[in-house]
Amino acid sequence: MFDYQFLIEVLIGGLLSGVMYSLVAIGFVLIYKTSGVLNFAQGAMLLFAALTFVSLVERGTPFAAALAATLAIMIVLGIAVERTVLRPLVNQPPITLFMATLGLSYVIEGAAQLLWGTQVHGLDIGISDTPFDVAGVLISRLDLFAAAVAGGLVALFALFFRYTRTGLSFRAVADDQFAALAVGLRLPRVWGAVWAVAGIVALVGGLSWGARLGVQFSLSLVVLKALPVLVLGGFDSIAGAIVGGLLVGAIEKLAEVYVGPFFGGGIEVWAAYVVALGFLLIRPSGLFGQKLVERV
């Protein structure tokens, strides 16, 4: 007899993981939507944020002070990256910008190693990773807390983009850079603000994933989890990043539990990429991405 309760438990676990995938993907979308840059350094920024925070805490800095200091550092890092690396490369081919962020990821990882060392750290955010029972369904407290934080951040972004002057500037630049210039918006200032926001997203993502996996250099590889999310949802849609993350999380867990036994297990790490590859053949722009139309 099919166990529907177990199915619900697996599905909820996948959706909670998917929210955390969405958080990483949103960092990509923010940069890509406003400047057309696929920021492969987002994973390194996530690692740098988590490593900075946990190192400060281990040196006796109070939790709140370490969080505030890391937040300030990530904002400064984001602005510095935009001004020193990306701004000089404005109007360069996309592959040039991508390679710049790829190299930047190694630079940031190297800086993290020089500053904080290479040892693995445990990150305790005060939430135990123990499940609690909801009508017979076991749900991880840590995953639920991380999903709630990620969801709250997404809601704040939605309000920010809709009701603040800076948020409206982001949207204007994302829709049409030339029109934004025509109405007097200063693109370098907007780009700097976007990279600062990407630094904040990296901090939240770094703490969430660091509490789950431990703070180690492999944490930067979480960026690879965002790629199928972006393919499914679209590279230029925050809503797509959310929906894509939920889909990828659910696909991974369901595939591992119900399809994995036919392949000897271990398909969770690549099942989403198979789906993403098939999706590229059907709808390359993703569920919510804008189709590129060029006039010739």
What string, H for helix and E for strand, traces the elements in order?
HHHHEEHHHHHHH
Arithmetic mean of pLDDT: 84
Q: What is the helix content?
A: over 70%
Could you tell me the CATH topology label.
Answer: ABC transporter involved in vitamin B12 uptake, BtuC
The fraction of residues assigned to DSSP E strands is: under 5%
Radius of gyration: 20 Å
Q: Specify the structural class.
A: mainly alpha
State the shape.
Answer: globular
End-to-end separation: 59 Å
Number of strands: 2
Q: Count up the domains.
A: 1
What's the architecture, going by CATH? Orthogonal Bundle
Helices, by number, come to: 11
Main sheet characteristics: 2 strands, antiparallel
Model regions low in confidence, pLDDT < 50 over at least 5 residues: none
CATH C-level = Mainly Alpha
Task: Outline the fold blueprint.
Layout: H1 4-35, H2 42-58, H3 63-86, H4 94-116, E1 131-134, E2 137-140, H5 141-163, H6 165-175, H7 177-182, H8 187-213, H9 223-233, H10 238-259, H11 271-282
Antiparallel strand pairs: 1-2
Describe the structure.
With 296 residues, the chain is mainly alpha-helical. It has one domain (4-282): ABC transporter involved in vitamin B12 uptake, BtuC (Orthogonal Bundle). Helices cover 70% and strands 3% of the residues. It is built from eleven helices and two strands, in the order H-H-H-H-E-E-H-H-H-H-H-H-H. It has a two-stranded antiparallel sheet. A hairpin with a 2-residue loop joins strand 1 (131-134) and strand 2 (137-140). Helix 3 (63-86) packs across helix 8 (187-213), helix 5 (141-163) runs antiparallel to helix 8 (187-213) and helix 9 (223-233) packs parallel to helix 11 (271-282). The N and C termini lie far apart (59 Å).
